[in-house]
Structure formats: structure tokens, C-alpha cells
Amino acid sequence: LVGSEMCIRDRTPPRSMRTSPKPLNGRSGRNGVADDKDCPYCASRPELLTCTPRAMLCVPIRPHVSPQDGGHLVVAPLRHVRSRLALSEEEMAEIDQLSRIAASALSAVLDVSWFNFQENGNWGLDNPEQQHMHLHVYGRSQSAVAQPFGEALRFPARADVGSWSVEHLTHGQVAGLRSEAERLRPPPSQRTSSAD
Predict the structure, then answer these.
(1) What is the rounded distance in angstroms from the CA atom of residue 119 to the CA atom of residue 101?
(2) Residue 121: other Cβ atoms inside 10 A
């Protein structure tokens, strides 16, 4: 996991990522990785579960679905881009791979039986510099209370987001999800991206 943590915490990408295309906003930070000081994924550095050379799986800073209702994880590219339209094929493949790992980890740790994969991004439309493409992976629990199983997820109106909160994952749940994500991540020789 040390190598995985380095790609987020130190923002030092593997060699294969240093030649990635420039981000949509045209700015890039250290070693060619875009870095926006106001971006929740670049500046806040959410808690990492695992990563690939071009994407990360993390615990959301502000969860939308409680562990009791199925849990919530986020997959995002390491590169700061506003839209999936700017992603390379390698980035898309790694985001897809990590989204499947996220669903499997939620299933194993929180015992969920269904998932929603969503790119929302609506709450940040007023501030394009903060927009960092990300994919939400929501677990759906049959015993859910606030997010009833079989119904569309319910989110607050944009004006009410600041006062909305959902129970976070416990430290034990995060440790279990991290362990499961690392177990499920294929060895470097079997990953979807090209080798360094």
C-alpha cells in the first residue's frame, strides 16, 4: 500500500503518468499532475483505499449514503480534469477497474447486494476550477432506511447541501474496505494500463 499512498499523498505519479495529456484547465502541477488548490480531490486529498497509475479509489470527504444504507466510495482520475470527455482510454479503463473493485469491496465489507454508479457533479457547476471528474459508487442495502432499496437515491436541493450530513464509515469499515480493495487489485502485470 505504500506505493499506492505515494501517488496521492505525495502527488508523485508513476513514470507512465508523467506524460499524460494536459488537463482541461491547461494548468499542471508538480511532475505534470494537475493540482488545483481549491479542488476537493487535489487539495483535500481524500482517504485513499487503493490506486492505479492513473486513478484512485477513496472514501468521500462528504458521504451521500451511510454505511447502514449501503455505503459510498469515489473513483477519480489522479489528473485534474473536469469531464470524462478529457480522459485518456487508459484513465477510463482504470476508473472502470476501480469502480468494480469498489463495488466488490462494499459487497464484502458492508454486505450490500446492489450498486449505483453515478457521475453527478451538479453541486460544483458554479466553480469550474473545483470540478474534478469523479464517479460515485453507492452500495444499496436491502435494510436501508434513508435510501430505500429499489428506489432512486435521494439528495438534498443544492441550497441545502451545506446543512446535509450522512453518517461516515467507521475506521474499522475503512480498514476492511482498504484491505479488500488491495486484495482485489490485480498485480501490475495484469492491470489494464501499459507498464512503466
Answers:
(1) 17
(2) 16
Distance CA 46, CA 54 (A): 16
**Distance of alpha carbon 33 from alpha carbon 67, whole angstroms:** 32
63 grid coordinates: 458521504
Q: What's the mean pLDDT when you consider all of the chain? A: 80
Q: Which of 115, 140, 120 is CA-nearest to residue 131?
A: 120
Check if the beta carbon of residue 18 is closer than 8 Å to that of residue 75: no
In this predicted structure, what is the pLDDT of residue 17? 34
Report the relative pairing of strands 114-118 and 48-51 from DSSP bridges: unpaired
- For cell 484491505, what's the residue? 179
Nearest-angstrom CA–CA distance, 35 and 81: 10
* Residues whose CB falls within 8 Å of the CB of residue 110, separated by 6 or more in sequence, listed in order: 67, 70, 71, 139, 141, 173
Q: What amino acid is encoded at 83 in this protein?
A: S
State pTM to two decimals.
Answer: 0.79
Please state, in angstroms and rounded to a whole number, the distance separating the CA atoms of residues 157 and 122. 11
